[in-house]
Amino acid sequence: MTSWLNRMSGRTRYMVCRIMIHLAGDEIAPLLGLLNEKGREAIDAEGDLQVLGEGLVEICQNLLQMNLYWFSVANEGDVLWKEEEAGNYVTELFTDSAQRYLSEPNYGKPVGENESFSIPITHNLVVMITIAATGETPALETSLGDREGLEDALKAIINLHYQGRLEAIQVQFSPAQFGDELTNDQLLLNFPELVPL
Amino acid sequence: MMFRQFTALVMALTLCLSTVSCGTNSSKVTQSQQPTTNSTPAAVNNTPAIADGRYPVQQASYDDADGTYSLTLLNTPPGTPPLYRVSNLQMARLTNEQIAQGEKSFLEVKDNTPVLYLTEDFKIDYIHNVTETRENPQTGQTETVVVRQESNFWSPFAGALAGQAIGSLLFRPQYYVPPVYQPGGLRGFGGYGNTYDGAVQRYRTNYNTSPAAVRNRETFRTTGGLRRTPSTTVRQPAPSTGTKSTGSGYGTSRLRTGPGSSTTRPRSGFGTSPGVRRAPTRSFRRR
User: Fold this and answer.
1) Does residue A3 belong to any structural domain of this protein?
2) CB contact, 8 Å: A71 with chain B?
3) Domain for residue A113, yes or no?
4) Measuring CA to CA, which of A121, A158, B16, B65 is 20 to 30 A from B161?
5) How many separate domains does chain A show?
6) What are the chain B neighbours of A102 within 8 Å (beta carbons)?
7) Least CA distance to B139: which residue of chain A?
8) CA distance A99 to A126
9) What is the pTM of this model?
10) Which residues contact A20 (CB under 8 A, 6 or more apart)?
11) Is the pLDDT of residue A39 over 80?
């Protein structure tokens, strides 16, 4: 009823959603390289949303290619008719996502020249993508608990960028970089909402 | 008869009241590390629609914080203030004939759509917002902050450049975005189109970045080690034994934020577990 009224009065419909994708396996670490690269590009562009959108497209395309490693997923979102509410929700999701990991790097002990060392390869990686978009996007406004749904959702995000409908983009990921690990225990503790695909 | 009218009135009022109360937020601010202020200046709300007609323009200004035009109009109808603010405004240049006949710049509103008709030397006051990316000491997240404002002018239709670029389109209402800011004043335009987004797109093609009004509405945040210059010391990473692993993130939002927090309002939306916020330190009952 209220959405009909909102449409009639010409208000903009904002959809805000977050998707958490958990990848597991031996070959997922290279995705960390891409995520860090897109992060640095975003910083160099001083947060230009257009640049973040292009980066997000690449990230989504890579995620689609790595569907063999999809292990579990969670998504949540809402439709809002007031820009401030949508903006606040986006801010909340950013802070909430940031609370799932430590911002500090892993300060291991320095290694001497001739010492051997090994870099643990993480077997878990969680990517959290939050977007705000105008209009309706049915592929995202549903429960993404299966592989097909998740595939459609990632494709929908790519389309949203090309349609110029994205008003906010956030990408967060854990662990932060090569050599850091996300253990199964940490996964369960910090991402309890994930459901197996 | 009177009683029925009275009941109908009461019912109508109750309906109005209940619809209005559905929209209010509870504005309890939580203690978590939410970035407190949206540092880009709050966008000015458009003034209510002005009646169709033609209004001479005494003065106009453009704020690149969000692309809002503020116009001082003459001969506005009674009850309508002379100050008119609008975000996306079409503009057109007066033709040579109109100028020869002594026409001055005016705002024409037709079917609720405002169009600003300007002489070729009309100067719009340009308010330039100088922004900086700073780290918020409370949240550790970086934000875009307006550090000062500069006043300058913008003549969209000044000089031969304007004429050569788009020819006769000049005299038809179009959306324009200013060129890149420079301290000596702005002449001409950085993008044009028959939609605002089209004008923004053209600007992007020309300059490889978005116009100031668009960029200034963006708040950029990062977390984690993305901003740190990579260390050259080789380190053996310590085994991950804490409750949390490492992580990084970045994000930009163009949306305005408001003072009210909606954390306390349960979300009815969609998702694998809608309506439940699952940050590890808090627990909620499923709705």
Assistant:
1) no
2) no
3) no
4) B65
5) 1
6) 242, 244-247
7) A95
8) 13
9) 0.73
10) A73, A74, A75, A126, A127, A128, A191, A193, A194
11) yes
